[in-house]
């Protein structure tokens, strides 16, 4: 991403007007300064209307029978699948599976592809910056199978050390599981290079796009990835809906991860034949209205333009780095703004992250503190907890200024000199 001024073409007032929650005071009367989109993004009116519109005008269950509503809602759900296909540039909508989120999607790959393909002695390569959702499912699989987890080396400023990639990715590697954008460091990882390295040793690559999807255009064919997951709720869509992209040849060969309605073609007393893709991996009633909301969210970001959103957030990240660096005792973790997305994790010497979070929250400033589900990373950083500010399309320089003022006020309150 290029550094530079916020593009005038992003009409920030119009964007902010789309998000009802940003335009009402908090219960304590303060203005909400929402700097926690990395945990979950707020929802624009367009998404809320789409969800409500589904429930109010055409809601029914999907893929069951031929009622007027059933057909309409099934068509609408399949239209969202096609929208996701286009958003990721997948070659077929059969490669787009609806799940409840990134976590479930990663577990599906581990349970289904992993159990069928990983053998005792094989290695699963991850990075030290993975969210637990892209680490624990592989640990469960490794334990069950007798496989081994290996970590890619990382530089001191929180980037993968590509010069040492072949220390970890070897002929024993079966799978490389990597995040596209770290939820703590903001690091943007070189997915294409990692995909090439994985494929060169006959391994597959699974990409956790939970953090990158709202910020970076994602083309699964250009990146040449085998699996990619994301959660709707970080992309301004409702909770409970997520996506697993899988290369068709893998999905065709994999057994279903879960059994139940919709995922079968025929069921007999003691066996079944699975349904064709994508139903094979969608047991049970899917999150229907949530998926409709995801479709509206994709339209929303596409209308603004992901490139424009990325440029806006990048300018904010540069500005926030400049402002925060001037605060005494403040340490920012991760690479320079030129190499990262809109996530800034930091500590303040002499102040517990929890206390800072509490004091900021009292002033209406929503950030997150803790290990952010990345305990191995925090062990490497040598701190038990960080404070994280993460940006969305609706954030402004005024939000950054409020964070800085909030931190200065917290310093005073904590009597830090
Ligand atoms: N992967 C990454 C990189 C994430 O940041 C998260 C959630 C997940 C996977 C899991 O997503 P879920 O929707 O299935 O829960 N990250 C965060 C976070 O950083 N703060 O709260 C949730």
Summarize the structure.
By secondary structure, the chain is an alpha/beta fold. The chain has helices at residues 12-17, 45-58, 68-88, 102-117, 136-145, 165-168, 191-200, 220-223, 248-253, 288-304, 306-325, 353-362, 375-381, 397-413, and strands at 33-34, 96-99, 123-126, 148-151, 173-179, 204-208, 227-231, 242-246, 264-267, 272-274, 330-333, 343-348, 365-366, 368-370, 386-390. Helix 7 (191-200) links the parallel strand 5 and strand 6.
Please explain how this structure is put together.
The structure is a single chain. With 417 residues, the chain is of the alpha/beta class. 39% of the residues lie in helices and 15% in strands. It has 14 helices and 15 strands. The chain has helices spanning 12-17, 45-58, 68-88, 102-117, 136-145, 165-168, 191-200, 220-223, 248-253, 288-304, 306-325, 353-362, 375-381, 397-413; strands at residues 33-34, 96-99, 123-126, 148-151, 173-179, 204-208, 227-231, 242-246, 264-267, 272-274, 330-333, 343-348, 365-366, 368-370, 386-390. It has a seven-stranded mixed β-sheet, sandwiched between helices. Strands 11-12-15-14 form a four-stranded antiparallel β-sheet, covered by helices on one side. Strands 1-13 form a two-stranded parallel sheet. The radius of gyration is 22 Å and the shape is globular. It starts with 11 loop residues before the first helix and ends with a helix. The model is unreliable at 1-7 (pLDDT under 50). Residues 38-39, 101-103, 131, 133-134, 179, 183, 208, 210-211, 231, 233, 368, 372-373 line the site of ligand 7TS.
């Amino acid at each position: 991403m290029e550094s530079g001024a916020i593009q005038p073409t992003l009409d920030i007032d119009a964007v902010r007007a789309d998000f009802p929650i940003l335009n009402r005071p908090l219960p304590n009367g303060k203005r909400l300064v929402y700097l926690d989109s990395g945990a979950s993004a707020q929802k624009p009116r367009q998404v809320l209307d789409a969800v409500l519109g589904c429930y109010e005008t055409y809601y029914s269950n999907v893929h069951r029978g031929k009622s007027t509503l059933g057909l309409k809602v099934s068509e609408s759900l399949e239209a969202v699948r096609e929208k996701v296909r286009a958003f990721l540039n997948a070659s077929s909508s059969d490669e787009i599976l609806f799940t409840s989120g990134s976590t479930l999607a990663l577990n599906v790959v581990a349970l289904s592809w992993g159990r069928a393909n990983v053998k005792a002695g094989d290695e699963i390569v991850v990075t030290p910056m993975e969210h637990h959702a892209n680490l624990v499912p592989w640990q469960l699989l490794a334990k069950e199978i007798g496989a081994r987890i290996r970590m890619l080396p990382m530089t001191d400023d929180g980037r993968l050390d590509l010069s040492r990639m072949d220390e970890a990715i070897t002929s024993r590697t079966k799978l490389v599981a990597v995040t596209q954008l770290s939820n703590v460091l903001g690091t943007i990882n070189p997915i294409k290079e990692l995909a090439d390295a994985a494929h060169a040793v006959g391994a597959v690559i699974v990409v956790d796009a939970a953090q990158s999807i709202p910020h970076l255009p994602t083309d699964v064919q250009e990146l040449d990835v085998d699996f990619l997951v994301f959660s709707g709720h970080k992309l301004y869509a409702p909770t409970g809906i997520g996506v697993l992209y899988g290369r068709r040849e893998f999905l065709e060969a994999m057994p279903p991860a879960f059994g139940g309605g919709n995922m079968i073609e025929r069921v007999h007393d003691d066996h079944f034949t699975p349904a064709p893709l994508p139903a094979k991996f969608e047991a049970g009633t899917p999150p229907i209205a949530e998926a409709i909301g995801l479709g509206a969210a994709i339209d929303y970001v596409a209308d603004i333009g992901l490139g424009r959103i990325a440029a806006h957030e990048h300018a904010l990240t540069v500005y926030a780095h400049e402002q925060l660096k001037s605060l005494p005792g403040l340490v920012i973790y991760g690479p320079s703004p030129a190499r990262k997305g809109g996530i800034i994790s930091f500590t303040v010497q002499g102040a517990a992250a929890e206390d800072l979070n509490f004091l900021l929250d009292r002033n209406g400033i929503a950030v997150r503190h803790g290990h952010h589900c990345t305990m191995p990373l925090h062990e490497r950083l040598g701190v038990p907890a960080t404070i994280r500010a993460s940006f969305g399309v609706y954030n402004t320089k005024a939000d950054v200024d409020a964070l800085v003022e909030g931190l200065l006020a917290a310093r005073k309150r904590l009597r830090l000199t």
